[in-house]
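REQUEST ID: PR-0412
SUBMITTED BY: lab tech R.K.
PRIORITY: routine
TASK: structure prediction, single protein chain
INPUT:
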Amino acid sequence: MKTIAVILAGGKGSRLGKDLPKQFQKVAGKKIIEHTIEVFERNLNIDEIAIVVKEEFISEVEKIVVENQYIKVKKILHGGKERYDSSLSAIDAYDSDDINLLFHDAVRPLVNDRIINDCIEALKTYNAVDVAINATDTIIQLNNHNCIHKIPPRNELRCGQTPQCFKRGVIKKAYDLALQDPEFHTTDDCGVVCKYLPNEPIYVVQGEVFNMKVTYVEDLFLLDKLFQLKTIQNDNHKLDSEVNRILPNKVMVVFGGSYGIGEEVVKLGRNLGAVVYSFSRSQNNLDVTDVNQICSVLKEIKERNGRIDYVVCTAGLLVKEPLNGMKYEVIQKSIAVNYLGVINVAKEAFEYLKETSGALLFYTSSSYTKGRMMYSIYSSTKAAIVNLVQALSEEWMGFGIRVNCINPERTQTPMRVKNFGIEPKNTLLDPKSVAIASINTLVSELTGEVIDVRRI
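STATUS: complete
OUTPUT:
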């Protein structure tokens, strides 16, 4: 049965306090609606996408669809004054009752494949499916005097999310009945089925706390942080199915490729058929703080191969020491290697990656989210890399360059051994797992993402 995702983007965003509707606000390098569309665009079980939007923003959505080459988007429909008008617009845009319609808020960009796939699976048994999470707060019901009238048992309550999913015939029938009711008003499609088709069971799929809806301006800050902490939904410890198709004969340059994570990226890339060049201070005396050296090697590689597809920089320097005890030359070197070096690599790689619509990959540390004692310089440079990735992904999106960042858990590398000594292996991440996540990210369509890699 054909499954169509209906993205409801008709909101005005008045509660956000901004002129531009919330679905067009940018978070993590893209408009919120772009993040949302891409989840359904990539999902293998979604056959088609319809976007419902207010008339004055149709041209904006058309531009987004064309620029991002969303091939599943087949309809861009006019939304109405109320939310249910947008739902009706999608319902009326299709003829067959034997299709699945998944209605999803455009401002819930963190919906994932698990939720979507569970909904589609549930539609094989039920005609109506909702998504919800357990209520964590006590819900109180008030009377007309603003006093508590009733406190429903919390274990019976859920917080609704989207998508809300239906066989088209069922949701159409529910709305046909609803529109005959002069008292009809709703902000929820499942509520229409519940009220006007009371004998139709509505199955509830378990949602996710992070599948949040952007409503207020504070939500934008929270959403941005959630994107920073987001992990790719695929198993980071297994190569993506697309790797063997995409990677062979691609030209990859790895700075910091002589040991640790960089060495594993080099090995894996070569084993998978890529043409990989490795540079580091210990291997061939390349210093990422020297722009001229970076410029020279990239130019030589381009002349030799005619292209550069991927540039990876794992070069890093960890100095575990209180700031007041650090010598200035140590501070300057740490900043130069960990941050200025990354900037140098990015700037020099731009022209080459623009030609190939290539990818740039950097590395951060879990300490970037919170500065830690003894790590003040290291943590702050890693936080700067995350901000750089998000900014460049937005700046370079129009050039087709993807910029991402890997955030590995504590990893068994020579740099870690140098600072922490010998630790139990079962407490550390294998650098090969980080390499797999790195390759998966390079061949993906992701940009502006911080990809967590954790032990299984």
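NOTES: The CA atoms of residues 230 and 451 lie 6 Å apart.
REVIEWED BY: pending
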